[in-house]
Amino acid sequence: MTDSDQGLHLPGTSAAEQLPPAYPERAAHGTAGTLRAWQEEAIRRYLEASPRDFLASATPGAGKTTFALRLAAILRSNHTVTQIIVVAPTEHLKNQWADAAARAGIRLNPDYSNADGLGYGRHYHGVVVTYAQVAMKPVQHRLLTENADTLVIMDEVHHGGDALSWGDAIREAYGSARRRLSLTGTPFRSDEAPIPFVQYAPQGDGSRVSLTDYDYGYGRALADGIVRPVIFMVYAGKMRWQTSTGEEMEAALGEGNTKDVTSQAWRTALDPSGDWIAKVLSAADRRLTEVRQQIPDAGGLVIATDHASAKAYAYQLREITGEPVALILSDDTGASERIDDFSQDTSRWMVAVRMVSEGVDVPRLAVGVYATSSSTPLFFAQAIGRFVRSRRRGEVASVFIPNVPALMQLAQELEKERNHVLEGPKSAEDMWDAEAAMMNEAEREDKASSELLDQEFTYQALGSDAHFDRAVFDGVEFGGYAEVETEEELDFLGFPGLLEPQEVKALLQARQSRQAKRSAAKQGILEHAPDKAEAPEALHRTLGEQRKLLSQLVGMYSRVSGEPHKDVHTELRRVCGGPAVAQASVTQLQKRIELLRRRLRP
Questions:
Q1: Dihedral sign, CA of 303, 307, 313, 317?
Q2: Are 268 and 241 in contact (CB under 8 A)?
Q3: CA–CA gap between residue 463 and residue 240 (Å, rounded)
Q4: Which residues of 565-591 are buried (b: 16+ CB within 10 A; e: fewer)?
Q5: CA 315, CA 544: separation in Å to the nearest integer?
Q6: pTM as predicted
Q7: DSSP letter, residue 531
Q8: In this structure, are residues 248 and 578 in contact, taking their beta carbons and an 8 Å threshold?
Q9: How many CB atoms lie within 10 A of CB 391?
Q10: What letter does residue 181 receive in the DSSP assignment?
Q11: What 3-state class would DSSP assign to 104?
Q12: Neighbours of 477 (CB within 10 A)
């Protein structure tokens, strides 16, 4: 079979050598008359191998839909298949896929339901369904697949492992398909559930790693100018809350606290009634205003944890901007229409819970606020994927995140390639330890649940504050501590919305240098200015270091005063507040350290 017979003109040398990496027009939704280099390269690889299963991983915004539909058109034209079935993660994406397919000359029915049986209309070439829809009636979908030579396109195929029953249903429904094309922008899961029709290679340690037939990651797409560079605006601040035991806690985001303290501080930061989220939303809106000077229709997205928070954030943004805010709630029947409306208009802000975390294409999104408590690599990658879709070269995305260790690591590793890893078989000893740990955890949860019934107190956010902490770009940190609405913060919020990646880095370095000199001047240091502005407190110290220092000071004070260590700790808790040392935050430990230092001074 020749290239012309397959319906695609393929040059004699590699596609990457023949085509520019990005075209002036935006190649998306299956509408492009020409293919990007990676798309043609991936199609070439597919046609050369002619496999039954093919897994293509491409970063969000690179054009997976275009690639899949062009390949589907080729396979139909050469009679490899006659029927196309697309499996999408959400109902909203069904119409999006059908619209894209129509522009590529393929007629798909997005309204097909399980009640329709095996009929979907003779004038269609196939259907678009959801993973949940298939899981409800896998046998029916298997019969539909076997009605004709079928290509099944599984969009964001990792959803096939969302539940054991889903994975089984997908295998049942499409195990007999002639061809299966799996697509993903995030080729990994947060658990160990195997993804249907994905091959895994055994590793030396007993684990298995997923094998991708074609990879086009964010780093390569950024170098090609196909996706936007992402700058993370990191905000920290002091948090105060009451625990379920009645203890008043205080901690700063970014400190080396325990996981529990970090989690509660993060929760407090996202509390709609606190100052932290209010200041971050205001800063994000100032950034959006700057971006809209170069990109007039640029929009912003706030990703919230739950419906109540989303509604509160939307209200705050209306107060800040004086404009309506699109509120997208997953259980709202009009959500898909509101997403479409926002995508096509020029309004400023949209607030959503989880519905726009994956697959929804709103190319004008340029500023984001990550105001959710989810920290899995999968969700984070999907969320950031909403902002990387580029319409023209030079667009820059800005995403505001709290200074939480898990998110900082994900932000710094944005360009890191990932594969799905399944852990290998565990030894009997490992399995016993794991089972014992699970039983102990279950007992603790049961005990905690029973105790909560008798407790007088519940978690309550008491107060929060925010300051700009740093910017992260290409895994590198820039800038330092800056109070909100100061020149130092505005330096980082005010750079242009249209910049090449190398210009972004140079500008951030210049902003950092200017901030450091300004900070040095305020401190009366005119020479040898630091490379980075310093925070007013030693927030870089880890929790372990603080505990060790406190212990040393308690020992010194005990020798001087003759009081037992236990009594010294009790007095410190009485004066400074907070729980025992093991549960105290870095901020609370620092207060006790400062008190002891004052008392030890001659």
A1: positive
A2: yes
A3: 5
A4: eeebbeebbeebebbebeebbbbbbbb
A5: 41
A6: 0.69
A7: S
A8: yes
A9: 15
A10: E
A11: coil
A12: 18
Q: Which of 97, 158, 96 is nearest to 126 (CA)?
A: 97
Query: Model confidence over 463-485: pLDDT tens digits?
Result: 999 999 999 988 888 888 788 88
Helix (H) or strand (E) holding 209: strand 208-210
Q: How confident is the model at residue 594 (pLDDT cuts 50, 70, 90)?
A: confident
What is 326-377 written as a DSSP string?
EEE-TT-TTHHHHHHHHHHS--SEEEESSTTSSS---TTEEEEEEE-----H
CA gyration radius, the chain: 27
Do 253 and 403 contact (CB within 8 A), yes or no?
yes
Q: Per residue in 101-135, is it b (16+ CB within 10 Å) or e — as a string?
A: beebebebbbebeeeeeeebeeebbbbbbbbebbb
CA distance to 249, 369, 497, per residue, from 270 (Å): 16, 11, 27
Contact 480, 470 (CB under 8 A): yes
Contact yes or no for 68/105 (Cβ under 8 A): no
Chain-centre distance of CA 262, in angstroms? 19
CA distance 374 to 200: 27
b/e sequence 399-425, b meaning 16+ C-beta within 10 Å = bbbbbbbbbbebbbebbeeebbbbeee
Which three-class secondary structure state does DSSP give residue 65?
A: helix
Task: Round to the nearest angstrom and report the end-to-end CA distance of the chain.
Answer: 92
For the ranges 1-5, 153-157, 171-175, which has the lowest average pLDDT?
1-5
* CA distance readout (Å), 397 to 328, 368, 491, 496: 21, 8, 16, 11
Q: Tell me the DSSP string of 283-315.
A: HHHHHHHHHHTTSTT-EEEEEESSHHHHHHHHH
In this predicted model, what pLDDT tens digit does every residue of 421-438 receive, in sequence order? 444 444 433 433 433 343
